[in-house]
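Justification of computing resources. Each target in the renewal requires a structure prediction run like the one illustrated here; the chain below, 249 residues long, is used simply to show the kind of job we budget for.
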Amino acid sequence: MHNLKAPGINRRIWALTTLLMTTIVSAMVSATALAQLPDENADGWSLRKETDNIRVLTIDQPDSSFQAFKAEAVLDVPIENLMAVMVNPESCVEWVHNCSESYAFGDGSFHDRYAYSVNDMPWPVTDRDYVIRIRTRGDQNNGEIVMDLNAIPDQREEESDYVRVDKSDTLYRFIPEGDQTRMIWIQHTNPNGSIPGWLVNTLLVDIPIRSIEQLERVARWDRYQNHELVYDDDGKLKGVTPKTQSGDD
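Resulting structure tokens:
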């Protein structure tokens, strides 16, 4: 009797084993797909430039001639102001160095949305355009907010006037420190086309420094004042909204 049941048991065991292995492999593939950026605390970061409140470090990336950079800064503006800037789909042109066009497209939410932008390149280099997925998460317990930006080039048809960037991964981490905000910006981009890696790596440090300095200025503009972070019952960030006015009109 035991021998007659064995094949059925073996088939079930094999099915469960196959399912388990498929799940493990899928998880490993997903983790690999998300692990596009070097760890913030990885060995190999090299300090390239430092100002009063900004440090820029770079690190080599495997299978790429283009380095990744990490910018660390303390901005003299509260996190609410910065997030009011970051959720504006057109704010790229206001603070990101050489960003000449930016807007949202498609269906999306605060937590998961899409944006299109154009990066102005010096002549004779062709301008680059980006199709980006933006994911935002925040925790009320520690106040930290993280944004992941990843290129999804096939989400929109290519424009004939630009070279489409097909590999770009960015992480923004915002940490409140009273009325100031600590910002960590990690990015690795393959600009595509025939731009030599050594040239991009030489110019790499100026992009985050100029951008962060401008971000601090933009976050002080009137349009980005008086905002608040909204959390759900579990303490997870839901959005950024203007503060409601109280009192008599």
